[in-house]
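Can't attach files on this board, so I'm pasting raw text. These are the components:
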Amino acid sequence: MEPTPSTLFSGERIRVGYRLAGDEALAWQKAEVICLEQTIEAPYELIPEGELGQNIIGHIESFEPLDTGDFMAVISYAEEVTGFEIPQLLNTICGNSSLKPGIRVEAVEFPDHYLENFRGPRYGRQGLREMLGVADRPLLCTPLKPMGLSCRELADLAYQFALGGIDIIKDDHGLVDQPFSRFAERVELCTKAVRRANKETGKSCVYAPNVTGPAGVVMERARLAKRIGAGGLLVAPGLTGFDTMRRLADDDDIGLPIICHPAFLGGFVTSPESGISHSILFGKLVRLAGADATIFPNYGGRFSFSREACGGIASETARPMGRIKPIFPAPGGGMSLARIPEMREFYGNEVLFLIGGDLQNRGRDIVENCHLFHRLVSGAQK
Amino acid sequence: MEPTPSTLFSGERIRVGYRLAGDEALAWQKAEVICLEQTIEAPYELIPEGELGQNIIGHIESFEPLDTGDFMAVISYAEEVTGFEIPQLLNTICGNSSLKPGIRVEAVEFPDHYLENFRGPRYGRQGLREMLGVADRPLLCTPLKPMGLSCRELADLAYQFALGGIDIIKDDHGLVDQPFSRFAERVELCTKAVRRANKETGKSCVYAPNVTGPAGVVMERARLAKRIGAGGLLVAPGLTGFDTMRRLADDDDIGLPIICHPAFLGGFVTSPESGISHSILFGKLVRLAGADATIFPNYGGRFSFSREACGGIASETARPMGRIKPIFPAPGGGMSLARIPEMREFYGNEVLFLIGGDLQNRGRDIVENCHLFHRLVSGAQK
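---
Top answer:
Structure tokens for the assembled complex are below.
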């Protein structure tokens, strides 16, 4: 006997808010097309008959004008359409519609029941705080850079950063396994350097190597990093696919916190009319896919994210989301120590500050710069 | 002894053409920033000393005004920076720069020597023609849809398409492993259906199931498809990561042709000022990453790719590229049979026509519609 719609569909639906450009008639037409494009990808005439077809296609739940002159359509999809898999979930949200201008994903809401299919971040804010032994101040993070330094030189930097009290030291995301910086050697030397510094300071600084790499190799690099004793992992889901990050986070043998890097995801956010909103992409989707901290370019730096976009990401990292843990927003991108007091005020305590070149590029020595970073973050005057 | 730059760097460099918005001073400044952003990701002061640093950073090879008022900067990168890995290659081309508006990748040139690190498509145009037994006409492709049909119904469709002379029948890219369409059952039934039709027609129609899926599962699905006897694979690298497609193509045990679907890649091309050009993304990069055919929305359909963009993709699929084989452009996206004569004229013979709903959505029966598709493609009048 073929299964019937009532046995196939739970009735739970995922809701996606699309901002649609155009006048009311055009925007409504876009909404109707999205209902098909994101599901059966075929004309109305081909909707499967009866209850099944009605379950499968998208439903326009609401349609409202916005102050901007655009329209907001909330469209729902049966949870079964997503196959309970991250790639097909992303495909359902905006796979084909990403190819059409004037459609921007501004909201995604999951039933709590649906979220039980995903573990999300292993640590989240609280787990990361416990691991690092940091009760309530913002976390301090810095990358190992520049590319071109030998593994020994990077390890020496890592040692100084850890001595100076940085909480998380991550590889620059361009460091993979190049002739001038072999993955295994780098992880070996940097892990040792951070361990040595931790013995001296009594702190719990974590080194997070970049495991972004070829499809068959990411998990191997992560396992190697774990074996060597690294305390976290950096991954760029735009380069590896979102689900590779989820797989890293879910792997109980690896079990390390995941720092998410935004490289090669910019396409979704650079157009204000198309793609996915900053908060959904860098706040919600990476959180669902297992990131414990989400790096994004801070406002006013060398990128062009607005203050509002950054605030939206930060809010989204902690919005209630079933049993999926809140994660750290990690603003970076050419931030200087001088910006810390203002960022502190803007982001509050639940933030991971990512300061790069400025820690290496000042008069004082690196340990001293890290101490200054600490004092600024703790709110004490310089 | 530490290796020296002359032992570390071959001197071969990848060249990337960036279209930069802004006046000359701003565009030049952007070009200078890209040289650092895409490599050391740090200020000038941190460029490693001497020859090493000069090898590592991007070089502005040329800088010219364009008729559009923008500027074109060609920037080269040492091949070693890419680690000879697809993810880091994409990261080098525009990882962080994808996050900045007003920077668009318009050209990428690889030294032939560099291309030897990649196998590219296993079949390419000639291999696919040999496999399908089609000497020189365009190839005919159609998706199994709509989502919601049972595997038995999809298999019945596949049988009729194959009887009608379709060359490649692919899963709709939204079909993964849902409760209403289980992967294993679908592949089993559709493979059998196509085989049965092939016996009747004496033709070599190929069924290509969609293996887009979770990170640890894509290869399993592909191996299962191969074991069952499927003749090709569909994959959406925007959802799985580009390198997963490369891995599928490189796997000698799987060894099937790869059809590339553009879902979730739209962010890169919807803004005319940012991201990556259509021809580089859908023509060149997917070809490097192993696609034998590249699906993209045809001009004048329900998407908004221009005629020029589509022509650019088609040209790029066959541009000389070391030993990397030319591949098939596969325009689709709501195309009707009525468009075939014009598309035939535009694309010539080296094309894979993807017609979806229109083969199911007409008066005659499906086999008859496929015959009409055939006649239109072969240039005969209806």
